[in-house]
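Appendix B, Record 12. Input sequence as logged:
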Amino acid sequence: MNASALEVFLAQLYTDDALRAAFVEAPERVARAAGLDGATLESVLRIDRDGLLMAAHSYACKRAAHGARRVRPGLRARLRDWLAR
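Logged structural output:
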């Protein structure tokens, strides 16, 4: 398994509630189903599950807050015009 595939798996693990729940329930099965093997599998199986859950919650809160802070379209256009001068 290459590093980018591991990164994809971890990103999904942090953002996908169903995958994370399945991983907490049966980590080896989920990791193998994702194509992890060898040392990568062993590393993922040693992940701090409490830390995983806390980080996933934190990222979800950040994504929700980011969506709430969207700049109004008119303000964005005025700012773009001002910066273009």
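The CA atoms of residues 14 and 55 lie 7 Å apart.
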